[in-house]
Amino acid sequence: MQELLRTNDPTLIALVTALLEGEDIDCFVLDVHMSVLEGSIGVLPRRIMVARSGLHMARRMLEDHGIEWSPDP
Fold this sequence. Notes:
Blueprint: E1 2-7, H1 10-22, E2 27-30, H2 35-38, E3 46-50, H3 55-64
Antiparallel strand pairs: 1-3, 2-3
């Protein structure tokens, strides 16, 4: 799995996962339960992961919908 997006905006996470599912791109959100450690203040970002085979199409989908993402360093 490759990281597609890292954010602490829950609405963006919901939007991106819905868009990915609509394009039949499997995704998985990591760090969902970190709120237990951070006290539910939303400081730690969550990561949306996709299969390496769908990464290019997922990034293209983000661009088509005007969602900014940072390429891997």
